[in-house]
Structure formats: structure tokens, C-alpha cells
Model the fold of this input.
Amino acid sequence: MAAPAPLFRSTDLGGGFRLHLHRTNAFKTLQARLAFHADLDDGTAARALLPRVLGRGTKRHPSLRAMQIALDTLYGATLSGDAGKLGERQVLLFRADWIADRIAGSKVLPQMGRLFRELLREPAQEAGGGVRGEVVAQERKLQADEADAVFDDKGRYARHRLVEAMCEGEPFARPAIGRAAEIRAVPAEAVTAAHRVMLDTAEADLFLVGDLSWAAAMRFARSLGFPARRATAPLRPPVLRRPARVRTVIERQEVGQGKLELGFRTPIRLGHPLYPGLVLFNMLFGGSPTGKLFKTVREKASLCYSISSGVERSKGLVLVQAGIEVKQFARARRMILELLDDLRAGKVTRQEEEQARAQLLSGLRVLRDRAGGIIDFALERQVNGQPADLDGLVRALEAVSVADAAEAARSVELDTVYFLRNR
Amino acid sequence: MTGTVVLHDEALGERVTRRVFPSGFTVYAARKPVFSRSYATLGVRYGSVDRALPGNGALLPDGTAHFLEHKLFETPQGDAFDLFASKGASANAFTSFTTTRYLFGSSGSFADNLRILLEMAFSFRVTEAGVEKEKGIIGQEIAMYADDPDWKGYFGLLGALYARHPLRLDIAGTARTIARISADLLRRVHAAYYHPRNMALAVVSPEPVATTFRIVQELVESRAFGPPPPARTTNGTAEPRAVHRKVRRFRMPVKRPRLLLGLKDEAPLRRGTELLRTEIASALALDCLFGNSGSIFLALYERGLIDENFSYSFAADIGHAFALAGGETDDAPRLRRALEREMARARREGIGAAEFARVRNKALGDFARAYNAPESIAQMLLSHHFRGTGLGDYRAALLQVKRDELNRRLRELLRPDRRAYSVVVPR
Done:
């Protein structure tokens, strides 16, 4: 059997700017993602404002209205950006998605290239230069509102509070858009300065997915215009820590349902030899409706509707969430920890193992079907200095054993318990 | 009408085969070797608005359709999630006002997974113990939504728009109504509504379409069924045209207030292309107002009254039609006043030729984009089926729709006596 093609053809265009192309005719659209990397730090809030401020208008399309009309005219193309978090990195991600020329019957590609370049490099400016102060003020308020709004979604809020308590003092505790108070204090000059850093020195990856030749991809990348970039200082490695003692945080609000969050630490991250074991462990634990958490806490004990576990692959955390009746707090917590102990002891039936492995492999095999899926896969590996080796991961998960999963489970240590309950 | 038809979309290079089996079961199958995954969705024309048990007309407890959706996964071979998982598939299901849909996605083992889906849908073997256990789980699902301000605002608004129509009832019911659900009741509901004539299957897979048809023949056509349920009517409700209440307010532990505007529309009486055309004209007209380049959206955004999460939607089926628009805001009363002013302006000014061309272009692009994923192709096929239209009708209607129709829809949707609001404010 011929080896499957690598996920992306990549090249370094110099100065920390890389191009990655996945050529396919599966989609009616072309999809581009441009990621800029930074550490999560005091500059996070200002950087997160960039996609918002740049999206408000360019020299040629100076208003939101003008930008949107230009995009709508191109068969509803989209061009937007936001700030995300991968481990202890902040990633500014700009996304463009447009109908392929062969479907549109017209030349959308060069027009999108032009719009993308404008968005990145040619923002509408104050007379004296620099991004518009009024726009910064408006978007600063909206971004601070966005930070506040986490409070309103109790599931998200509980996760946010768990991470804040558990990773206090670590970069990971900071939200990808910064904290509300930080956001409100960002001056327009800081956004202008962050813009320069983004264009001139920040590590950047451009991903293209669609029916596009390598030459056309190179032309598109060059047309965005990153001529003379300087190599950047290397970003910080993530903080790895072992829990000293288990902390419990209980918060009261006027809610009906209790939100239980358990935060665990593990030294296993992407690139660690036991990483495939951790992936299998999570699937067996709470990564799917066949995992132990769902089967026992939901289906057997009828304690919840929603329960799951997930891995922060870039940081080495395992996070569990469950929505439960408030009076079941102690019982649910005990059950979750007992199920973890079962996994540490390798108590896994053959059926559980087969189901977990089949779902993991199926999930990886269909990754190529979604442009977002393969881009996220590659971007996360890029952030961790790992190759985007999908086939390697498939082989590793075919070979990984329950003993490996149990070993990974033994490395997982409880750090913080958070519970949001009624008054 | 039984038989097989191949439906083409020349412009997009897509084809779908439709076969209607003697039982009345309609199956859509598209072979898509460009994707490595298979996706299948089975839809039942049975949702939360169907409150009567066909036959004796008994009123069902609120939340029955959703409860049945949960319990369909209980099979004599064990939990269907396990059966799917053993074949590398992930499965799910959801219940809406008008349909219940089951789905799986997988790479490989397509035939096995399709068998699991059809077996589970047609041989219903629920136990009393299973039903009792599910009450705790669904009780927590209801509790989760009760703490969700957007959910509260949404059903609060439907309760303001509708005085009697079951749209005003929560799809999952309440702890009290689901307490009355028994295994026997679910069995009777299943026998009545899960009839092949009342269901449809849509499959997108790299496998040949013949595989799908063979499995359906074997697993569905071999069974005996009773009479199909009667067609849904206006649900026996004499729903007035005017809104039930102008405003409903809720206090919740939130930081950001929310305002949702509802526009109560004439209830369609028939399915088919007429309904499709109404839906398209309404969606395009609403895009001109509330879309990303819509005149109302931009006016409110630039004045800082809304944020980028402001959204809108339109829903229509026999017996109901409504539009919603709203989101988070600092000042709900001010946003409401601004919306009223902007709607009056939009009604006066109407939709211009350039605006019309733009939103239609965008809709054509969105239609092509829907082919990017097996999920959206299959769900789109089911939606057309339940409306009584096809994918080809959609493109044709989109190309035929006139600006006048949008302007007529705009004036109808924005009639001042058909508006209601729900407001969620911090405690």
C-alpha cells in the first residue's frame, strides 16, 4: 500500500513566516487560516484587539459596511479573526473562506487575496497614523463585554474558574482575550504597536486548503506581503507543575444545577512518548459516550445529563466536567475518582478498549474531510514543535495498549476541585 | 409513489439518488468518494408540537418526543452508543418542534452502522427500568437549560408570540410532565409515529448507493406496519394572529442583558414549493435587515447597542412561522426603541436592487458551501423532504425570487402588531 500523502506541503518563506498547503477537490470553497503566535502575557489583551480593530475597515473599505458589502458580493465570502489559546500561547487566527473560482465562474481568488492583504496591512488610520482611536474604544468595550459574558454561561464559567484557581500565577490562567480589567485599560497606541509586532516579527503560519496549485499558493502567500521579516525570539515553554495538595473551591450563585469541575495535571503532553497512552486513557475515561464517566455516572447512577473529560494537549492537563444535582456533589466526585483509580489499575474490558480505539481511529481517519480539522491538527503540532504526522498518530493508536493507558492514568494527579452551587 | 429518481445539480456537479420503497419509506443516497467518512441521518416527522396520540387522540405529556429519542438508544443488544462505537461511529440525535433526527458518522463499517441505525429505529424495546433511569438524566438536561439565559429568552419569546400553539412549550418538557411517561406510552407513540411513510433517511457516503438501498430493503421492507399517522394539521389550536404578550421579562444571574425580538408571521397551510419560496423570500429579506451587511445590524452595531453575536432566524412549517432577532446588549430598553425606529425606517424604505442582488449572491454561495460537509448535505436533504421539496427546487426558487417578493415579505413581517420581545436582565 502506498504511503498516504502528508497532510500539508510546507515551506519556510523566511523571517518566521511559513506556508502550508493541503490540496484537495473535496470542497466547493478555498479556506485560508493565518495564525500569529505569541506568549500569553501582559500584551495579550492588546493583541486580541487586533482582529477586531482590523476587521472594522481598511483604507479602501473604511467601514464595516464597506467590508461586508465587498465580501457579500463575492458570494458571501468570509474574512474574520479572533484570539485563541493553545497551551500557554496566544494565537491570533485570521480566517478567510470563499467559493472556488471553478464554482463561482469568476475570479474570486485574486480579489480575496487583495482583501486579505488589506485587512492585515492596510487598516483605516488616524490622520497622523496609527489605528483609529474611536474604533479601538468601541471594540475594547465589546471585548471587555465578551470577557464579562463568560459569567452568563454557567458551564463555561465553571471551567474558567477552575483554570483560574488551578493555574494561578501561570500564563495558562489568562483568557485568550485577556481579563476584562486589562482589556478596558488598553490604549490605542498599544494596539498600533501590537500590529507592528504581528506584521514584522511574530511567528506566523499560513494554511491553505482547497483546489490550489503549489505555485498559486506561493503567489497567494507572497501577495499578503511579508517582505523583510526578522526572526523572532523563541517563545516560552509551558509551565509544568505537580500538584502540592488538592484544593477545593466552592462558589455559590442563584443557579438550579450544580457544575462540578475537576482539574488534574500530568507531565504528558504532545511529543511525550506516553502521549498515545494519554489519548487512549482519556477516551476510556470520559472522552466519549462509551467512556467510564458517561457509562457509570450518567447511565448507571443517573446523576447527570452532561459529563466528559478532555485533555489540554499543549499544557498537560486533564479536565473533567459534570452538570449535577447540587446534593450529589460528594457522590459524583467520589465516583469520578474511583473510575480514575480503575483506569490506573488497568481495569478495562475488552469491549471498552475496542470501542475506544475504534472511535479514536475513526476520528483521525475522517480528519481530512474538514479543512478546520486538519488545520487545527497541524497548528497545534506547530505550536508544540512537533511534526503534523497524522499517519504516525494513527499507527501509534493502533499499537497503544491498555497498559500504556494505565501508565498515563497513573501520571494524572488531582489538583483542584471546583463546584458551582446554589445559595 | 414508489420508484427511483436521480437528481442532478449540474452547476455544482452533484447527484443524489432518491428511492421511495413500497412501505412509503423515502431514502436519499449520495455517493461522495471525496470524503473518507459516511454520514447518515434518519428523520421522523414527529416533534414537540405533535401532542396527540394518533388513534385515540389522547394528549401526550410535554417532552414525549424528546424522551422517546433518548430511549430509542436502549436496545436488546445494549446501548446503541456502544454498538456504534464498536464500529468506530459516533452517533447522536436531536428533537425539534417538528422532527426527531438520529445520525451517525463513521469512517468504514458503513453497512454495519446503517444496520444498527435502522434496527434501533424500527425495533423499539424499551424497559420500565430504563424509562425510570432516564427521568433522572433528562431531569438534569432540563435543569441545565433552565440556567441558560439564551434558552430562557428563546422560549420566553415563543411564549409571548403564541397563546396556545405548542411551540410555547419546552421541547424536553418539565420534571412534572416527564414523570408521567411510561414504557407503555412510549411503545404506543413509537408504533404510531415511527412509520416508514412518516420517516426518511439521507445518506452521504463513499460507498455505492446500492448498499444503502439493499440494507433498507432487507431491514425495513421485511416488516409489517400499521396505518401511518395522519398528516400534521394546524395542531387543533385556534392561534390568534396577534401576539399573546408584547414583552416578557426574566431575571437571572447574568452580567449581560439580552433582548430578543420576535415577529409572528402568517401560518403556512401547505408544504411544497410555495412554502419554500416564502422561506427564501423571508430569509433574504431578513438578511437585508439583520445580516452582517444588513441595514439594521450595522446601524445598531455602530451605535454600540449590539455586538457581533447578534443573530436572526426564520422558521416555518404547517401551522406556524416566526422570525427572531437579538442578542446581548447593555441597555435592553434602548435597543428596543432603536429596533422599533429601524424597523419603521426599513418598512418605509424597502429593499433596493443592489441590496437584493447582494443577498441573493450570498445565498447562492452559502448553498454551494453546504456541499462542503456530508452532514450539511444529508440534513439539507431531510429538511427538503419534510417540506415536500428537493435540492433542485431550492436553487431554482433562489434564481426566480423577485425583489418585490422580498419587499412584500418585509412589510408583512414588520407589521407592528405582530412583534413581541423577551428580555433577560441581571438579578
About this structure: The first strand of chain B starts at residue 3 and ends at 9.
